[in-house]
Amino acid sequence: MHAESPSQYARTNFSVGSKWVKHLSKDRLGTFLDGRYGDVNLGAVLFTERIDDSRHEQPSFEEAVKQEFVPIKKGTAFGPSCACFIRSYFTNHWVKVHLKIPSSWVKYERVQFEFDPSCEALIFDTSGTPLHGITGGYGGERRVEYVLSPEIRRKGSVDLVIEVSCNGMFGNGDMVASPDDNRWFNINSADLVVPNQEAWRLMWDFNTLRQLSDSLPGNHPLQNQALIAANKIINTFRHDDSTSISRARQVAEQVFGEGWEKKGDRIYKEGRGVVQVWGIGHCHIDTAWLWPYSVTQQKVARSWATQVDLMERFPEHRFCASSAQQWKWLEQLYPKLFDKVKAKVLSGQFHPVGGSWVENDSNMPSGEALTRQLIFGQRFFQSRFGLRSKTGWLPDSFGFTGALPQIIREADMPYFFTQKISWNNINSFPHTTFNWIGIDGSQVLTHMTPVGQSASPTWVDDVKRAIENNKNQESNDKALLVFGNGDGGGKRLRRIRAAANESRETLLPLVSMGSSVDEFYAAVEKETNEGKSLPNWHGELYLEFHRGTCIIKKGNRKSEILLREVELVATLASLQKHSYSYPKDDIDALWENLLLNQFHDVLPGSAIGMVYEDAERIYDEIARKGKKLTEDAIRVLIPSSISLPLEDGVLSELGKGRIFAVNTLHFSRKEVVTVPLIGPAVFVNSLKNEAVQVSRGGENGYVIVEVESGSMAPISLSLDTHTSRAQAFETPSGDFVLKNANIELKISKGRITSLYDVVIGRELIPEGRDGGLIIFEDKPLFWDAWDVEWYHLQTGRPLQFESPRIVETGPAYASIESIIKYDKSTIKVIISITALPATEIAGSRSNIRFDAEVDWRQRHEFLKFEIPLDIHHPTATFDTAFGNLTRPTHRNTSLDIAKFEVCGHKYADLSEYGYGLAILSESKYGFAAEGDILRISLLRSATAPDPIQDQGYNSFAWALLPHANHFYDSDVPLAAHLFNSPVHLRHVPDVVGVPAGIQMGLTHHGLITVEGARNVILETIKRGDDDDYSARWRSRDPTVILRLYEAYGGHAKTKIRIDSRIGVKKAALTNFLEDVKSELKLETAPSLDRPVGSDTEDTILSLNFRGFQVHTVKLTVAAHIAVSQLDGWINILRI
Ligand SMILES: [Zn+2]
């Protein structure tokens, strides 16, 4: 029993005692900040002082270069948004401001300059140091105030320079549409203001309470408490009584805890001790999207300047930024700000993440390009800050190849972050934190933030989602809260402090601040028993969205192949000739530009038109400079040789000589090559003598070349009588036939009705079906250029090859041309076959090649090529970085249905036991395998954000490659490499004293060859990244890097043979960053092409692979090898 106390409960009651009307109490919160009541609600007291007249402030318009000043005032408009008459770019305007601060204002807690040009801007001091970013306008991302320091206020005046950029945070369109070129921006405010800080704090308190009330489940104690407190605040506040503000703030303490604000960042140390949500600032800055690269450079400066300012004011604040390219731009264009940021990196507050050059697309880049994304990124961070990232960071890329886990691990990163797969529009991805296991078995500890946005504007709702959307609570309950405004960078740190307060106790999870992304992953790793208690996801992370983006990528493919060749020939030349120095800086610069264009909104095709003007300029530059670097190196290897076809200006140089084919691939080839018959008559005539066929118009010769791996050979072979002959003819019934001894294709009534394997007598097209070009309607739901939706497949309309015409009749090369008029477009297709099989592998069949030139004028239509096959298998195989992956041909489940349009690189293959057919591609990346139909996607015609996507002239090629045996026993990957890397033709003049060119031959063995396994591809030969190029090897021995991968998905035991002349001193296995993992044993074997009796020996390295494994081998070679021309890598000898 406890002591009785008299009850205070009143005997009578005459009050109303109304129960609250909860929804009205909630709705009422909207009136507290609302503009309708702006003169009597909290809005009325937010500013103590405001000066906006020209007596105190003299903004001037400055043309940055000319230094001419024009007075401007509020209401002045900047524009137009695009200076399209000069060059397609958003315009910039420079403003100089002189601020005079009244001496009486020293007493105030804060004075700020409020500048709202209604677009983006950057405030500099007069020495050019960026101070703060501005996001004008009245959107949720608005940030228009620059807080003046106490020194400035004491001094009483300050001069500032502002760069006003005529674009909003999302460019000048509406997210999807193309930009408005004639948008103007008004100066809404240019005021010196004294904010009433306590009133602002009350507003932030109130907003946090309102969020709690809006976001938490109805009738939860905390939700009710927040709602009651917010209503009490409204009741307490009087706009004409400044003391009411502090009383109202005390009401908020009932929820946030007494004295919570004074605790500052110590608040994170309190509470239950178990932190589930790790907060870190980030703003996802798209390297280009609805704005060009140049605008991104400004966005980086604006956003990061603001972060440095926030770090001064909020010691717990940490911020992470990816993309070494953005850091490099900052270093080049804003060196003073870079130094400030660097200081914050070194103090541990500002974190480089991701280790990549840009946040690249990860479907389309080649394996080597993906490695370079990480090599260039990690090396940049290491060189500037002495650190590497531990976490791969691709929050926004449109799906992830199954090769990526291995690539990330090889770049010294165990962790991976994304969120994009949450955008799936058919299936919900089942995991938040998981082991992502790639095609080769490598794993990365992956977290896909349950908050669901790449850079969330942080609010109570996000903290809540961090827990509620976590799909692996049973194995790991931690979540990364990456907060901030995307593409502009704002923060709401104070709200996090309020939301982090432990006195709210139970419902909201605790948020921690002050850690890095890497620390978050390390904690997850530790708590999940090194990931062993986490679920696994195998293979690609397929994004069920943005599928329509894989098709306009010719510049990327051509540049990747060109840079591969540049590195190969430059490496050989650098080893051969002392006076030739490997052009490392030039090659790196080209790589950096190629990597830049692989940004996840550029390469996929989802950016505005002016981005593609930049991108095409970059591809042109890579082509031009890459060609020159190749030429410089080949001239070292084969002095005085000339590249064919001839360019203007070199005709006169051309004397007698021979034509050679250079094979940059590491497998041998025999094929028909087209040589344009241009040049002096004597040259053309000698070439005609070598040709096995001259085109009917006389403009081309067709010659046969046989070249060993990685070497060069003269084109002098003839078609022997046993070789199949290519033919093209029209049958009496009007059908057109292309055939040779192994394959025959028939076009009947404009469609491919028969594809016949002559060798085994098998028809590949099912009875009554046909293949050819096909048009689909293409009207996705929202993101025009990004998406293609599954319902487009219901709208297919086959096109006919109109009026076919036989162009070449063989025997080396036969072709049929068709010109198709479709609506406003014209499609010219040449279908051809040669006498030879696709590869030198026994039993190889021939390619049937399609070369298209298209004048494309369609809108919202999708051009594809399809072929139905009498081949049945539940999966089809697609080329990807460093390997391949299979995807279903059926649509059993919704996961299968979602894969109606998929990405592949050089081939897509449908095989069953004993037979298959591949489509080869040299520039397209979109494919589909639907039942027994194989398709390649050729052209789209979205109108937003680029209104002229794919419009006008396009040229591209693809091929059909039938093959005996299943894909695994086929020559498809080799044929696809050959299709993508044609031989280089060179004219080699006769040397003085050497008989006529006809008598010149060539010794040829590739200098580095792979023996013992045809499933291993030698992808890259380059010089080491850490070689001393300036001193020409004096300080250390040169190194050569080889990158090889297993291409089919099975084990391989190989021997790498390295020619004795390279002089290998040491060999090691390394990761991509060229850190040595283990030394390799050097073995030897007699050289292949040395005279009998000679004791020269090649170096042999034994290398084993598991399926899809990538190996990087670092060879340390002799510092200098004296080689004469006749002892060089490519020897031209008299026979
Ligand atoms: Zn993005």
Strand content: 25-35%
Radius of gyration: 34 Å
What does the largest sheet look like?
9 strands, antiparallel
Overall mean pLDDT score? Answer: 84
- Sum up the overall morphology in one term: elongated
Number of strands: 60
Helix vs. strand class: alpha+beta
Distance N terminus to C terminus? 119 Å
Give the % helix: 10-25%
Unreliable stretches (pLDDT < 50, length at least 5) are 54-66, 993-1004, 1122-1135
Task: Give the neighbour order of strands across the main sheet.
Answer: 36-37-38-39-48-45-44-41-42
Which ions and ligands are bound to the chains?
zinc ion
Number of helices: 19
Description:
This protein is α+β, with helices and mostly antiparallel strands. The protein is 22% helix and 29% strand. The strands form 14 sheets. The protein has a nine-stranded antiparallel β-sheet, covered by helices on one side. A six-stranded antiparallel β-sheet has the order 3-2-5-10-7-8. Helix 7 (324-333) crosses helix 8 (335-346), helix 14 (554-576) packs antiparallel against helix 15 (584-596) and helix 15 (584-596) runs antiparallel to helix 16. The structure holds zinc ion. Residues 284, 286, 396, 600-601 line the site of zinc ion.
What is this entry, summarized?
With 1135 residues, the protein is α+β, with helices and mostly antiparallel strands. The protein is elongated and about 115 Å long. The model is unreliable at 54-66, 993-1004 and 1122-1135 (pLDDT under 50).
Q: Any descriptors?
A:
nine-stranded antiparallel beta sheet, elongated, alpha+beta, 29% strand, binds zinc ion, six-stranded antiparallel beta sheet, 1135 residues
